[in-house]
Amino acid sequence: MTKKNQKEKKGRVAGMPRALVSFPPELYKTLEELAKKKKVSIAWVVREAAEQYVSAEWPLFGNISREVK
């Protein structure tokens, strides 16, 4: 495996899709503040929010992200 491939895989969970998302500046600032307060990454805050949204909209799905492995 090349050094470039090693860097690309560092910090990623195998098989997890990635998404590029743009936020309005004020929303991003709020996400940064929440992440800092909770001592987590912005990605974690966004994933948590997405999970809660899906659970609220489709309760029968439950918490799918933790079921898929």
Structure description:
This protein is mostly helical and 69 residues long. The chain has a domain at 22-69. 59% of the residues lie in helices and 0% in strands. It is built from 4 helices and no strands. It has helices at 3-9, 25-38, 42-57, 64-67. The longest helix is centred in the C-terminal third of the chain and has 16 residues, at 42-57. The radius of gyration is 15 Å and the shape is globular. The two termini are 24 Å apart. The mean pLDDT is 82.
Structural class given helices, strands, pairing? mainly alpha
> Proportion of β residues?
under 5%
Shape: globular
Q: Output mean pLDDT.
A: 82
N-to-C SSE string, H for helix and E for strand: HHHH
Q: Distance between the terminal alpha carbons, to the nearest Å? A: 24 Å
Structure summary, number of beta strands: 0
Pick out the low-confidence regions: none
Helix content: 55-70%
> Roughly how many Å is the radius of gyration?
15 Å
Main beta-sheet annotation? none
> How many alpha or pi helices?
4
